[in-house]
Request: fold
Amino acid sequence: QLQLVESGGGLVQPGESLRLSCAVSGGTLDTYAISWFRQAPGKEREELSCISRRSGSTYVAEFVRGRFTTSRDTVKNMVYLEMNTLKPEDSAVYYCAGDYFCTSTPDHWGAGTLVTVSS
Reply:
């Protein structure tokens, strides 16, 4: 059973950067694609990025492209979401999720980490 644990959330000021980490266990990044999503209170969940299994090719949603990037460390079995020039509207719970392919409905989810962008 794939397990994912997010870390790295917190309170930052507008314009600052933050790197979220997703620790993956119970499977490898050669087998699973890992995505990042977020959900703010009262809003729908948004798919942010995906890094594919095997090749590690990446997809980043257009509305955060240029500010957010995703990467992975296959030795550590970790996936990262680097977020730059953060805005108050980026405040949300951020989740990593895994499945065999990049999908908007992955089967395996972490519990989430809260990011708050506020001055």
The chain has a mean pLDDT of 97.
